[in-house]
């Protein structure tokens, strides 16, 4: 199984869609809580869905069950929680949601997890992959589109 990840910030639309197209992914799975962000116009749900299909022939899915809740995000954003606190809370949320049993492995294979953070090492998409690797017997190959 191979999973790609990408963050849309610090990328132009051209850079973003070129990375997606060259990777050969089948679909982009949006793991953001709010997929109507104004940070990048091209990354808003309806526009993103259109551009992915028109430019890259790639499907788009918004997977809210893989997104952190506001109750987890806000304390971290307000510097009330550390990055490690955020990680612990997010991994607990994934366990409560039982994503390892509800998530279709076939859907995830050759897909690209999308979030806003430019670097994967400071984004929950990295924690999601870590969680799945710990709960699935499959080896997951990861490629970050940077």
From TrEMBL:
Short name of one Pfam family: DUF488
PANTHER family registered for this protein in UniProt: BLR5642 PROTEIN (PTHR39337)
Entry protein name: DUF488 domain-containing protein
Annotated source species: Entomomonas moraniae
């Amino acid at each position: 199984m191979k999973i790609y990840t990408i963050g849309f910030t610090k990328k132009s639309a051209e850079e973003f869609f070129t990375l997606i197209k060259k990777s050969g992914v089948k679909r982009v799975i949006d793991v953001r809580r709010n997929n109507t962000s104004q940070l990048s116009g091209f990354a808003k749900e309806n526009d993103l869905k259109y551009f992915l299909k028109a430019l890259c022939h790639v499907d788009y899915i918004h997977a809210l069950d893989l997104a952190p809740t506001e109750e987890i995000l806000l304390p971290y954003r307000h510097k009330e929680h550390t990055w490690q606190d955020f990680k612990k809370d997010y991994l607990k949320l994934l366990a409560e949601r039982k994503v390892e049993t509800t998530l279709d492995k076939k859907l995830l294979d050759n897909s690209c997890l999308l979030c806003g953070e430019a670097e994967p090492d400071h984004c929950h998409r990295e924690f999601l992959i870590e969680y799945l690797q710990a709960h699935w017997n499959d080896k997951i190959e990861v490629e970050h589109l940077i």
